[in-house]
Amino acid sequence: MMKRLFSALVVLISLPAAVLAASGRQPAPPGAFKDAPPQYTRFSTPELMRGFLALAFGSDLSFGTASHGIRRFDHPIRATVIAGGSVDRTAAMQSVVEEYAAKIPNLHLSLAPAATSADIEVRLIDEKDFRPALRIVFGANVTRTLVARTDPQCITYVKSGTDGAIVHAVSFIIVDKGDAVFLDCSFHELLHAFGLSNHDQRNPWTTLNQHRTVGYMSVYDRSLLTLLYDPRLRPGMNSAQARAALPDLIRDLGLAGSDK
């Protein structure tokens, strides 16, 4: 039975408008859907800190006793893609997993066969089967709450211990609503599964802004996930501890001020 659910969070951190001045604007990378938005590739330390503190803490939708600290896996991660739906997107979803594995230092992510147990399950389904699948996992009452609060197109639930270490995650990804929805859900929901649990509707660069359809791994989100899985940030660390550590981490990892 699920002990924790983290899916849709809002933690808003206000910074002066002048700080929000990312640069290095570039077209969407190869593999993005047609008309995908461009991305910025250079960010300041405050811009990266703002995103991390907003997206790695809290939850706008949680069940059980939520951890107030950083949540992430503390061991190598095995992810499996469970095929389903009327459009075969298994290979495309596996490619998204492999992109995260290749680009995020210290994530230690690998694909597991669908028939084996894994830390992250990615379940591919048609839109008509989405709510029935939620009712199976969450029950009717929780599903009604989820739909009323967020009206989701895709969703991830994450089970974690009180120490912040993630135990298991399951993502539901809709496959029959076109490339834009599929790709946006794929990159978005894996960010949640790895531990960037929140949303921030005021952040113009992250995939975890529900007012944006991005559909690729942005430089900004890649930087945040790189920070989250640096061994100097540990599961359970509170926001004050993370805030103190982030400037040195961003400097040491070379994440601010240059294209990545």
Provide the fold topology:
Layout: E1 5-6, H1 45-55, E2 62-63, E3 77-82, H2 90-103, E4 109-111, E5 120-125, H3 130-138, H4 140-150, E6 155-160, E7 166-174, H5 179-194, H6 219-228, H7 239-252
Parallel strand pairs: 3-4, 3-5, 5-7
Antiparallel strand pairs: 1-2, 6-7
Would you write up a description of this structure?
The chain is an alpha/beta fold and 260 residues long. The chain has one domain: Collagenase (Catalytic Domain) (3-Layer(aba) Sandwich). It is 33% helix and 13% strand. It is built from 7 helices and 7 strands; from the N terminus they run βαββαββααββααα. The strands form 2 sheets. Strands 4-3-5-7-6 form a 5-stranded mixed β-sheet, with helices on one face. Strands 1-2 form a two-stranded antiparallel ribbon.
Short description:
With 260 residues, this protein is an alpha/beta fold. The chain has seven helices and seven strands. The chain is globular.
How are the strands ordered across the major sheet?
A: 4-3-5-7-6
Low-pLDDT sequence parts: 1-19
Give the radius of gyration.
17 Å
- Number of H/I helices: 7
The sequence of SSEs as H and E is EHEEHEEHHEEHHH
Shape: globular
Total domain count: 1
Q: Give the CATH level 1 class.
A: Alpha Beta
Mean pLDDT: 87
State the CATH topology: Collagenase (Catalytic Domain)
CATH architecture: 3-Layer(aba) Sandwich
The beta-strand count equals 7
Which class do the helix and strand fractions yield? alpha/beta
Strand count, sense and barrel status of the largest sheet are: 5 strands, mixed
Strand content: 5-15%
User: What separation lies between the terminal Cα atoms?
Assistant: 40 Å
- Helical content stands at 25-40%
